[in-house]
Specification:
This protein is an alpha/beta fold and about 550 residues long. It contains 23 helices and 11 strands. Strands 1-2-11-10-8-9 form a 6-stranded mixed beta sheet, sandwiched between helices. The radius of gyration is 26 Å and the shape is globular. The structure holds 6-O-phosphono-beta-D-fructofuranose. The site of 6-O-phosphono-beta-D-fructofuranose has 14 residues, from loops.
C-alpha cells in the first residue's frame, strides 16, 4: 500500500464503490461516450477496455496515479540513457535498436553485418565445410535469447523464405537437441549460439554438444581421405557456427572467430533483446525487408508511447488496468488469449517479459513492498483454451483478468481469397469462427447468464444452478488488422512498454532478475555429485544439504 500516495488512496476508496458492481450494471449506467472513454486506437490497432470493471472515473484516478508516479520523467530517464537498471548499473536502451536512421552507428553496423550474413545464406554463397549450401539453421539459446525470437519466427511463418529452415533448441535436456539433430544433415546445418553472457549453462552445454556433433561427423568423413583433422577444426567451426553475444572473449574461447560474432551491448536486457542481433533467426527466416518492417512497427509504437498523452497512451493504459486488477480487484493472475494460431507462443514470451521483469517485492529503495506486483501470466491461443481451462474462468469463482487478441485477417489470405483455390470458401469459415468465438468468450465472461435467462432458453429447474454463469470477469480486447511484421513489432513493443510502466507504477527495477540466481548457484553445488557418483559419503557439501534433497539425490545416483 502506498500510504502517502494520494492517488493510490483515492483508488482504494473508489475500489470499494466498484467492487460490488457487476459489469452488467457498469454497462447500463457507466458506459457513456463509449468509444471516447473505453477505446483507444493507434495506427491500425484498436484497444477496447470497456469490459474492464471500471468507470470513466476509475481511468481518471489511474491516470492521476501514473502522473504522481512521474511516468513521463521515467520515460525520459530511459531515453536519456540513465542507468535506471540501478542494481546492475546499466542503461535500458532497447528502443535504440529499432530507431531506424536515428539508431547509433554501432547498432546500424551490426544490422548491416547481419543482413550481409543473411544474404550469403539466402543466395547460398555461405557454404558448409564440405562446400554444400546451408539448409537448416539451429538457434541455441534460452530465456530472452530464445522466447521472443522463436515466437516471432513462428508468428511469421506465412512469410518464411524457402532457402532455409529455422529450428530452436533451448532445453538442456538432451532430448531437445537430439530430436533436432537426428533430423538434420551436419553438412548443411549451421548453429547460431545466442547468449548475452555466453555463460548460460543450458546454452553452452547445447553448443558444446552441437560442436561435437559437427566435428565428429567431419572426422568420420575425413577417414576416407587424408587430411590434418586438428588443424581443420577451426575451419569447420567457422563454417557451421556463428554467435550472438556481448561476451566476445568467451565466443572466441569457444572457437567462433570474431567475424562470425554479432555483438550487442549490456544496455540491452535479455528479455528485450530480440530487436538486437538476437533477432538474427528472424532475419534469416523472413529476409531483410520484413525484418526492417518488424523493427519499424516497434518504432511506431515507441513514438506513440513517448509522445502520447496519458489518456491516449496504449501501453500505459494496459499497465494501469493491470494495476487496477491486481492491486484493487485482487486478481492474482492475468491470462492472454491470442485468437491466432500464429501467435501460439506469445503467452510464453509474455510470461518471461512480465514475470521476470516485475515478479519482485523489493522496490527501488530496497524496501519490501506490501502490495501485490506481477500477476501470474498464462494463456494459450484461442480457441484451444476454450476446451481446457475456460470452464474455470466461467464458473470457477476466481477473478482472472485477461487480454483477448484477435487478428482481423487470416495470415494466409491468399488461400482464402484466391478464387482458383477450391478450398477458399471453406477456409474463410475458419476465420469467421475464430473471430466469432473471440468476441463470444469475452462477452460471456463479462456478462454471464442469470437463472432467469437460462430459464428463458428452456433450461429445466433442476439444472438451473449449473447453467447459471456469474460473469463479471474483466477483459480487454486488442484488434490487430493483420499479422504483418510491422503489426507484430507494434504488438511486442506495446507489451514491452506496458511492462516498463508497471515497473514505474510499482516502483520496481524491471530490468534485473536476481531471483533466478539462487537456483543456478545451488545447481552448481549439486552437479559434481552427478559427475562423480561415489562421493556423497562424508562429503561436507552433501551433509549440508537438507534431508529431502539428500534423499532425492541419493535415489537418483543409485539409478
Ligand atoms: O533466466 C535468466 C536469464 O538471465 C534471462 O534473463 C536471460 O534471458 C536468459 O537467462 C539467457 O541468458 P543469456 O542470453 O545470457 O544466455
Amino acid at each position: 500500500m502506498y500510504k502517502n500516495n494520494y492517488s493510490w488512496q483515492q483508488l482504494n476508496e473508489h475500489s470499494e464503490f466498484i467492487k460490488p458492481l457487476h459489469l452488467r450494471e457498469l454497462f447500463q449506467k457507466y458506459r457513456q461516450n463509449y468509444q471516447q472513454n473505453f477505446c483507444l486506437q493507434h495506427n491500425g490497432l484498436i484497444l477496447d477496455f470497456g469490459k474492464q470493471r471500471i468507470t470513466a472515473k476509475t481511468l481518471q484516478l489511474l491516470r492521476n496515479f501514473a502522473d504522481q508516479m512521474q511516468i513521463q520523467t521515467w520515460i525520459q530517464k530511459m531515453l536519456n540513457g540513465e542507468k535506471i537498471n540501478h542494481t546492475e548499473h546499466r542503461a535500458v536502451g532497447h528502443i535504440k535498436l529499432r530507431a531506424g536512421n536515428n539508431a547509433p552507428p554501432e547498432v546500424k553496423n551490426v544490422l548491416r553485418r547481419m543482413e550481409n550474413f543473411a544474404d550469403q545464406i539466402h543466395n547460398a554463397t555461405w557454404k558448409g565445410h564440405s562446400g554444400k549450401a546451408i539448409k537448416n539453421i539451429v538457434s541455441l539459446g534460452i530465456g530472452g535469447s530464445d522466447l521472443g525470437t522463436r515466437m516471432v519466427v513462428i508468428a511469421l511463418s506465412a512469410l518464411h523464405l524457402p532457402q532455409v529452415k529455422l529450428h530452436f533448441v533451448s532445453n538442456v535436456d538432451s532430448a531437445d537437441l537430439v530430436k533436432k539433430l537426428t533430423s538434420l544433415n551436419p553438412e548443411t546445418t549451421l548453429f547460431i549460439v545466442e547468449s548475452k553472457t555466453f555463460t548460460t549453462q543450458e546454452t553452452m552445454r547445447n553448443a558444446e554438444s552441437a560442436k561435437a556433433w559437427i566435428l565428429n561427423f567431419f572426422h568420420e568423413k575425413s577417414k576416407n581421405f587424408s587430411g590434418n583433422l586438428v588443424e581443420n577444426e577451426n575451419e569447420i567451426v567457422k563454417k557451421h557456427f556463428v554467435a550472438v553475444s556481448t561476451n566476445i572473449e568467451a565466443t572466441q574461447k569457444f572457437g567462433i572467430p570474431p567475424e562470425n560474432v554479432f555483438e550487442f551491448w549490456d544496455w540491452v536486457g535479455g528479455r528485450f533483446s530480440l530487436w538486437s542481433a538476437i533477432g538474427l533467426p528472424i532475419l534469416l527466416a523472413v529476409g531483410k525487408k520484413h525484418f526492417a518492417d518488424f523493427l519499424a512497427g516497434a518504432n511506431d509504437m515507441d513514438e506513440h508511447f513517448i509522445h502520447s498523452d496519458l489518456d491516449k497512451n496504449l501501453p500505459l493504459t494496459l499497465a494501469l488496468l493491470s494495476v487496477w486488477n491486481t492491486n484493487f480487484l485482487n486478481a492474482p493472475s492475468f491470462a492472454v488469449f491470442p485468437y491466432s494460431q500464429s501467435l501460439t507462443r506469445f503467452p510464453r514470451y509474455l510470461q518471461q517479459l512480465e514475470m521476470e521483469s516485475n515478479g519482485k517485492t523489493v522496490d527501488r529503495n530496497a524496501q519490501i513492498v506490501d502490495f501485490a506486483t506481477s500477476p501470474i501470466v498464462w494463456g494459450t491461443a484461442g480457441t484451444n483454451g476454450q476446451h481446457s481451462y475456460f470452464q474455470l474462468l466461467h464458473q470457477g469463482g476466481q477473478i482472472v483478468a485477461s487480454d483477448f487478441i484477435c487478428v482481423k485477417k487470416s495470415d494466409f489470405p491468399e488461400f482464402i481469397t484466391d478464387s482458383k483455390n477450391k478450398n477458399s470458401q471453406h477456409l474463410q469459415q475458419h476465420q469467421n469462427i475464430l473471430l466469432a468465438n473471440c468476441l463470444a468468450q469475452s462477452a460471456a465472461l463479462a456478462f454471464g447468464q442469470t437463472a432467469d435467462e437460462a430459464k428463458k432458453y428452456g433450461i429445466s429447474d433442476d439444472l438451473l444452478a449449473y447453467r447459471t454463469f456469474k460473469g463479471n470477469q474483466p477483459s480487454t480486447t486488442l484488434i490487430l488488422p493483420e499479422l504483418t511484421p510491422f503489426v507484430l513489432g507494434q504488438l511486442l513493443a506495446l507489451y514491452e512498454h506496458k511492462v516498463f510502466c508497471l515497473g514505474v507504477l510499482w516502483n520496481l527495477n524491471s530490468f534485473d532478475q536476481w531471483g533466478v540466481e539462487l537456483g543456478k548457484h545451488l545447481a552448481g553445488k549439486i552437479l559434481p555429485f552427478f559427475k562423480d557418483k561415489n562421493n556423497t559419503k562424508n562429503d561436507e557439501v552433501f551433509n549440508n544439504l537438507d534431508s529431502s534433497t539428500q534423499l532425492l539425490l541419493d535415489s537418483l545416483l543409485k539409478c
